[in-house]
Amino acid sequence: MSRSIVSVRELWNEWEHGLSGGRPVKELEKQHGARWCTNGERRFFNRRRKIIDLVTTTADKMLSREAIARSAAIDAAVTRVNAVRTAHRKSLNWLSLNAETAARQLGADVAAPGKTSRTKPSTINLGITTPALPPTSTTAGSNSTVATSQTEGPARSL
């Protein structure tokens, strides 16, 4: 896999069509598994594979909600995943390491079973609604306590 790729679109093209007359990575993986790359490149491949999985999961979610062609769903998913990356002003490596956060922003679920994330919901506007937990408040006499979600810190007394 090429280390000079900087966008999700370029990564998807390498995966689907190959670069500079080379074979598509999808074909190499299907035929050889991860054995086609050296041990040093395997970690890099696995990180890039998370982004490919994020694109396909996002496209599958779009297909289940909308009556569109698979190629149109893939194209839209590539654009949306890249929009998450550019909204954060981050690299493809960041996207692979934060695939669960990106999936939540995209409305796709790519988290491993039983694995939870400890990050707060993002406030970046991508045209996608991300539900946030509202703080709860209780009033007891003159003392008022506001409890916030666990990710924001302990409860505070007013």
From TrEMBL:
<dbReference type="GO" id="GO:0000978">
    <property type="term" value="F:RNA polymerase II cis-regulatory region sequence-specific DNA binding"/>
</dbReference>
<feature type="domain" description="Transcription activator GCR1-like">
    <location>
        <begin position="1"/>
        <end position="70"/>
    </location>
</feature>
<feature type="region of interest" description="Disordered">
    <location>
        <begin position="109"/>
        <end position="158"/>
    </location>
</feature>
<feature type="compositionally biased region" description="Polar residues">
    <location>
        <begin position="141"/>
        <end position="152"/>
    </location>
</feature>
<protein>
    <recommendedName>
        <fullName>Transcription activator GCR1-like domain-containing protein</fullName>
    </recommendedName>
</protein>
<feature type="compositionally biased region" description="Low complexity">
    <location>
        <begin position="129"/>
        <end position="140"/>
    </location>
</feature>
<dbReference type="Pfam" id="PF12550">
    <property type="entry name" value="GCR1_C"/>
</dbReference>
<dbReference type="GO" id="GO:0060963">
    <property type="term" value="P:positive regulation of ribosomal protein gene transcription by RNA polymerase II"/>
</dbReference>
<dbReference type="InterPro" id="IPR022210">
    <property type="entry name" value="TF_GCR1-like"/>
</dbReference>
<feature type="compositionally biased region" description="Polar residues">
    <location>
        <begin position="119"/>
        <end position="128"/>
    </location>
</feature>
<dbReference type="GO" id="GO:0000981">
    <property type="term" value="F:DNA-binding transcription factor activity, RNA polymerase II-specific"/>
</dbReference>
<dbReference type="InterPro" id="IPR052146">
    <property type="entry name" value="HOT1"/>
</dbReference>
